[in-house]
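Retro notes - structure team

What went well: the batch runner handled both jobs without manual restarts.
What didn't: labels got mixed up in the shared folder, which is why I'm recording both outputs here explicitly, each with its sequence directly above its tokens.

Job 1
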Amino acid sequence: MRIDLHTHSTASDGTDSPAELMRHAAAAGLDVVALTDHDTTRGHAEAIAALPEGLTLVTGAEISCALDGVSLHLLAYLFDPDEPELLRERELVRDDRVPRARAMVEKLRELGVPVEWERVARIAGDGSVGRPHIATALVELGVVPTVSDAFTKEWIADGGRAHVTKHELDPFTAVRLVKAAGGVSVFAHPAAVKRGRTVPESAIAELAAAGLDGIEVDHMDHDGPTRERLRALAGDLGLLTCGSSDYHGARKTVELGAYTTDPEIYGEITRRATGAFLVPGAGGHRA
């Protein structure tokens, strides 16, 4: 059983539409895939409508949080998308995305980069605009060779020359809200140091005490020793350990199913969740 619990579509900053993502997940041999667009569930309906037979969809979202000025992301699975308090907080985060992206474009222009808002808006399309769209614009302009190269202190990484902060939830509040909405919370790529500053392991322990369900261990931004350390930490704290591709389509080099979650862990996630049901595919056939 192959399970990938972290993917993105054009509803946020991926390059595959939700329907395309479901077809690609089936073609990649996945049995289970989670759609976890940034701060939105807008792609779920299209994904469900296109879900091939034999593929199960876990509905979710990746929630933007910050602790002591350090950004972190919380994967939320199988929560009630209409629960009013969590919905209100997600809408606040989404509403801040356009002003923040515009401010980053202005900073880049002040640094001599001839990027225009219209280019970034075109790249984002109907998705929730974010830094990957700005990074793609920098690639198109030849400023950096890859999207990853834009996420440095020179450009748009946390604390970078063109970085602008956005509205983000307190992670302790986010964990509480996800649980109140019947969902399961997993700390995404907690030790991805190449993205910028990360929270200390003591903060992960505090989040675990506050109800965090798990941490994403097997991820492209974690090397071998880091995964071993995180797995040991999760064992000490009683946290679930997940593996995921963090697939963004053509925007990143990682492929669907590059990292996966153990079926027993997946089973525990589904047992804990009460806010939404798994969606089994019945609309087509595997590629």
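Job 2
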Amino acid sequence: MLSAKSLFEEILDNDESFRLFCSIAASGESQGGWENARIAALVPETERALAPKITRHGADEDKHGRIFNALLKKRHLEPVPVPPETDYTMLLEKHGIGLAHDKLKSDEPLTVQDIVTYLSHSRVTEQRAAEQMELLRKHFADHSDIGRAVKMISNDEDNHLAYCHEELLRLAAAGHGRAIQRTLRECALAEIRIYRDVSLAVMVHMGRVLGWPRTKSAVLAAGIHAVYAYERIAGWRRMVSLKMPERRDALGGPATSAPELA
């Protein structure tokens, strides 16, 4: 019987599929770390109080990248190049979601609208990340190899999501509510499409590595399309709602260090 747990166990048990999984994850996290670091450096003067939290966000993403690389090293594996069609972070940027890298590479200060765009993009993608890590935490929190890493990353993603809610509500109260809702909707509808495409691409690569029969690949592809259909009709709305989180000032302190995995 196909299930999220059985599929991940299959990926985890095979060195080549595990290597691809960790390489994709590490690349995306490292890219997020760079983006947040640049945003923190370019925050407009009126939002300078936000800079330490953005820096903390970026430090967490960098840490996650190191954790995935450490998981590879623990199994004496080297990272592999990330297939472009599986690069979630870069595909979002390519389709105009979030802040363009050309903007982040310049020294021009960002605007408050840029911060709205950044936080809206983060609110959507952190929803996805928090849900994915919660799924892994549910099934693998006690796993001898990845349990500690899964729990730490899951907790961080929950913090990131709480931070996005709180800061977007603050900006909405300051008069940016309509811009926030418009940007959230645009980001969510684009993200669910890109997530579908990336999921299909990852499935193809994993199927090739693990030798999945056509019937299994077809069933998985149908499931991915079904999730997209649901998200396109109604599921995207969970990515655009805002409520004050229980975790207040979730990124108000220093980043925590990565666990020792050796």
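One thing worth noting from job 2: Helices lie at 4-13, 15-42, 51-74, 88-94, 101-105, 112-140, 147-210, 214-233.
We'll revisit the folder naming next retro.
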